[in-house]
Every structure is written in C-alpha cells, then in structure tokens.
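Dig into what follows:
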Amino acid sequence: MTKSLLSSILLFSVSANAQFGLNLKISNEISPVLSKVIHDYPNYFNNIKGDILENDPQITNYTCLLNIKDMEPGIITQYGRDAEHQYSWSNVLLQTESFDEAKRKFHLFYADIKKTSAIIKNTLVKLNANYEEPDENKNFCNVLFKVEPDVDDMKNLVVDLNMQYELGEWKITVSFYNKEDEEKLYGSE
C-alpha cells in the first residue's frame, strides 16, 4: 500500500510538472558561476579565461570557460597591457522587449546574486546590496553589490547587476570588476 501511494505521488508530481509547467525546484544558476569568477579574480581570471575574441591596443576580450546554464558565455576583458592587470568579467543574462519580464527577472537575478559567496585568498566573502526597483520611465537601473568583508585588495571589488533599455530591448547584464580600476580607466562618477 505504501509503495503504491508513493508511486502515485511521484507520478502526480512528474505529470503535474510536465502538464502545467510547474517548477518544483527553483535553481540558482548564476551564483555557482559567479562564485568561481570571484574566486579566480586574484589569478587575473587565468583559470577561466578562454580564447581571444577581440584584441586591440586598448582591450583584449576573451571567452569565459564558465557558462551560466542556458545563457551565452561570459566575456573576460583585459584593459591595457598585461603588466597592468586590469580585468573584468561580464555576462548578458537576458534580452527582451517586455519591461515586465525584465523587471521580474531583474529581481530574481538580484536574489540569486545576493546568495553568492566565494573564497578569495583564504577569506570567505559575500555580496551585499540594497535592491533598486526598475522603473519603465528610466532607461537604466543598476545595483552595485559590495564584496564583504572589506579587506585590503578586495575593498574595491563590485558585482554590478545592470538593466538598461537599448535598441528596443531591455538588457540585463551582470559584471564583476575592481571599481578603482574602472575609475582609473573612465574617470570617477
């Protein structure tokens, strides 16, 4: 009797999932990849850097060997010469014409990223940021996650969750970089 009851429950769960598209397990595909990206930052992303996509005197773009499930591969960018060691990582998470879909996904991506932790130089770090609600009347929304604790060479590391409207689409991107390097390259805000 117990076996048939368990079998019936399992069969119902599987058929309900298939028939109604119920997602019984909510997965976080971003956090494990982001954790590995953050962990490899002190190595200048050497362990996750793939082939060169673009190379000019100002920047070199590489494919990222880590992939977020069902998304295009991320890009690792090196700014300037090798000796300068200025790198960033970014990954497009969504492109859609629907503001409502983008807004909903932006909040989900925020929650996923907030759960991320990583180890950098034997220190456990976590990400912290306040959520900012996207507004359809503004073409841009971003949340800057600070890497905590605020230790030595990690104090300027940020994860940037960005949503912007460009060319008729809402685009959501996640990036990881050293804010101090960014300010040197582009000037302070």
